[in-house]
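Notes to self after the Tuesday call (sharing in case useful).
The group wants a holo model before anyone commits to mutagenesis around the pocket. I volunteered. Ligand is fe (ii) ion. Logging inputs and output together so the record is complete.
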Amino acid sequence: MEQTFSRFYTPQFVTGRGSISFISTLGKKRIGIVRGGRSYSPELEKVIEAIAEETKALVCCFAKIRNEPNIQDIFQCMETVRDFEPDMILAVGGGSVLDTAKAIHLFYENPEMSFEDSLTPFTLPALGKKAVHVSVPTTSGTGSEATSVAVFIDSENQIKKLLMDHNLIPHYAILDANLTDSLPDSIRIATAFDALTHAIESSTAANASCMTQAIALEAAVDILENLPLAVSTNTDTKSLSLARERLHVASALAGCAITNSCTGIAHSYDHPGPAFGYAHGKVCGLMLPYTIGLCKAHPSYEAISRRLGYTGTAQELTQALTEHLFTLMKELSVDTSFQALGIDEHEYFKRVPVWSEISLNAFATMVSPAKMTYEKGLQLYDACYYGKHPTL
Ligand SMILES: [Fe+2]
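Result:
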């Protein structure tokens, strides 16, 4: 029978400053924590202590996860996890930490499963028989607390491997902006551009439902309006607090949007990031306005552009959005080309043919309105390197 419906997947969201205290209401007694190797939040230790105190639960820190975790990082703590037998997996950190917690939960509840077994998309079992999964992001960007994906590096060949299933979505996502206040602005900006790219790309993906689009568009506008406020020294304390909170929620909504549709070509063509060691958000954000140039006018771009106050034809509105993005990047001192970022021209262009070829097969490319070809890939990388603004 033809499928005539679509489902919308989300964790249960808990929001508000101080909302991490929600954990104590779950009545769990063996809390296993997965967190970052370095913490941007000096409040975090106190928060974890307070949770242990209030819940009278046994707390065990399973792992301190580095950026770009590899497969071994998951399995080196699995013995501790099984010995401790948590009834809650609590992930507190950035996207890498939250991703790793998804895998730890999966292999804790399914000890017979190998990593290779877990790689077939949408075949993973439901989770929650042994532990509830609570995800607490401390950055506002990846949206991992709301997504069905976890990414790991295979340390043997440096290839990215992906676990993907809606059963990996955490049961609860706690969006407590207090944990983001001490983020350095450079990280706040790079991660916000990742979230913005999720929001804008997911709204234009061919498989986006009207529900996904509504959430994605609202998240995009919220990020565009609040990011400048969230990093400005001229913003008063109350407005700063509110702007950061809105960014935090928008980033989670953008995560929901990609889970229920997909990203786009700023993600599937993001190879310069891993190749030259640049943060994911920095590369996606840089490529975003150039990719809009290839997608041409789209109702989502028009809608965002109108919300930002622009008027005109579909083409003029889309052009206005690309220029708005470039202006915002300049205002925030973000590089707008790979040349400005300092990537070596020869090293970059010798990789471009392979990148243009392999990106064509990505799902995010297939659902993008850009209708990519090998030649368009070359054109995109050329524009991104030299900073050739698109003309619609
Ligand atoms: Fe991303």
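Two things stood out.
Residues 194, 197-198, 267, 280, 284 surround fe (ii) ion (CB under 6 Å).
The mean pLDDT is 93.
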